[in-house]
Amino acid sequence: MLTRVTCDRIHPSFGAYAQGISVPAGARLVMTSGQLGIAPDGSVPGSVYDQAGLCLANALAIVEAAGLGIANVVRLNTFVTDRAHMAEYMRARDDWLAGSDHLPASTLVIVSGFTRPEFLVEVEMTAAG
């Protein structure tokens, strides 16, 4: 069973994510490669929100292919190309987690870019179960 770790000796989380997640011994880990906001047909939406939704959906599809689900996600590593994109990514992440009482650990990093200029966000996902 995954357990959310909260420490009252540090500043509270800035958003919908856990300060830490404890994974029990013997759990199987699934780690995705970074997923871009690209649809199966190759289209790339123009908004950060829509790209982030695809990134999360694509990464979760890999986790599900391994037999796990959203409740097994223990960590999100996210990369955006501009500080201005943070709010839209966070809104997409919050919408993605809506209806779930599970919050993964999360890191958000600003990077200079990706392989193609239309890509604005990338998400890596780690799951355990």
Please give a handful of descriptors for the protein shown:
five-stranded mixed beta sheet, 129 residues, 2 helices, alpha+beta, two-stranded antiparallel sheet, single chain, 60s Ribosomal Protein L30, Chain: A
**Averaging pLDDT over every residue, what do you get?**
95
| DSSP, total strands | 7
Q: β content, as a range?
A: 25-35%
Radius of gyration: 15 Å
CATH topology: 60s Ribosomal Protein L30, Chain: A
CATH architecture label: 2-Layer Sandwich
* CATH class category name: Alpha Beta
Give the full name of the CATH homologous superfamily.
Answer: RutC-like
Low-confidence stretches: none
Count of runs of 4 or more consecutive helical residues = 2
**Helix proportion:** 10-25%
SSE string: EEEEHEHEE
Q: Give me the secondary-structure category.
A: alpha+beta
Largest sheet: 5 strands, mixed
Domains counted in the coordinates: how many? 1
- Report the span from N to C terminus: 8 Å
Describe this structure in words.
This protein is an alpha+beta fold and 129 residues long. The protein has one domain (3-128): 60s Ribosomal Protein L30, Chain: A, CATH 3.30.1330. The protein has two helices and seven strands. Strands 3, 4, 5, 6 and 7 form a five-stranded mixed sheet that branches. Helix 1 (48-65) packs across helix 2 (86-97). The protein is globular. It starts with a strand and ends with a strand. The mean pLDDT is 95.
Please provide a brief summary of the model:
One of its GO terms (cellular component) is cytosol. The protein is of the alpha+beta class and 129 residues long.
